[in-house]
Design brief:
By secondary structure, the protein is mainly alpha-helical. It has five helices and no strands. The chain has helices at about 5-20, 25-35, 40-60, 65-80, 85-100. Residues about 105-110 have low confidence and may be disordered.
């Protein structure tokens, strides 16, 4: 099933990931991890990234992608699809904002 993913299924999976991220228990975990990392980019990735990856693995496993390998396979398919589908690109970007640190996090007092 995983190899025959169409645009509609890809969009549904991405939406399901966003819904899972927004669940109260996951949202709380992510907020706590973000606050623990402070403004340090490396800590942000160490604290936040694994939580988002776990959430994504749980969701994509429902669609036939299992474990880390399945998540990597899913991400590769999404990267291919996002070049031709703006909705997939938009959804993927929304997910990325949950695990990418805010811009200028290393110099918060500098205004550009």
């Amino acid at each position: 099933m995983a190899h025959n993913m169409n645009l509609e299924t890809a969009r549904k999976i991405l939406i399901d990931i966003l819904k899972a991220i927004a669940l109260p228990e996951n949202s709380k975990k992510l907020s706590e991890a973000k606050s623990l990392s402070g403004k340090e980019t490396i800590k942000f990735f160490q604290q936040v990234f694994p939580i988002v990856m776990e959430i994504q693995m749980n969701v994509v496993s429902n669609y036939g992608f299992s474990g880390r390998e399945g998540l990597i396979q899913f991400e590769q398919l999404i990267r291919e699809l996002e070049t031709s589908d703006p909705e997939i690109a938009r959804l993927r970007e929304q997910i990325r904002t949950t695990y990418l640190p805010p811009m200028n996090s290393t110099s918060p007092d500098v205004l550009i």
